[in-house]
Amino acid sequence: MKHLNKNIKQTQKIAGEIAKKLKGGEVIALSGELGAGKTVFVKSLAKSLGVKKNVNSPTFVLMKIYQTKNPKSNIKRLCHIDAYRIENFQDLLNIGVLEFLGQKNTTCAIEWAEKIKKILPKNRIEINLKTGKKENRRDVFINFLK
């Protein structure tokens, strides 16, 4: 599924649409160059899931866990992972990432997921954000893998 995305509001809308479909246990693997909108996507996803805290990229701490506050959802936590700075997937294993991947009450959103494909579940949502050749254009490719 491809979405043409011209601004932040459209990225937020796409993330909101994805959030409505989540039931818990999903892994969202985000990829794209610097500035493509991965963190904007996760912030919007978090807001749609009812996260009240300010969400920012966990670049230096690698992983942040947010409590969700949506009583209509089974999702109680959003696990936000940023693999940009890791040397290998063992760095994430050392901080306990496997405790959150696939948990029924947790959704995981992973920026720079292509760096840790070896530990990602086969059943995941892949979102690739690409900057277009035209100014302010982003293409969002969404692939539901089973």
Describe this structure in words.
With 146 residues, the chain is an alpha/beta fold. 21% of the residues lie in helices and 29% in strands. The protein has three helices and seven strands, in the order E-H-E-H-E-E-H-E-E-E. Strands 1-7-6-2-5-4-3 form a seven-stranded mixed β-sheet.
* CA radius of gyration: 14 Å
What pattern of helices and strands is seen along the backbone?
A: EHEHEEHEEE
Any low-confidence stretches, pLDDT <50, length ≥5? none
Report the major sheet: 7 strands, mixed
**Helix residue percentage:** 10-25%
Q: What is the structural class? A: alpha/beta
Number of strands: 7
Could you say which overall geometry the principal axes of the C-alpha atoms support?
globular
What value does the average pLDDT take?
87
> Within the largest sheet, what's the order of strands?
1-7-6-2-5-4-3
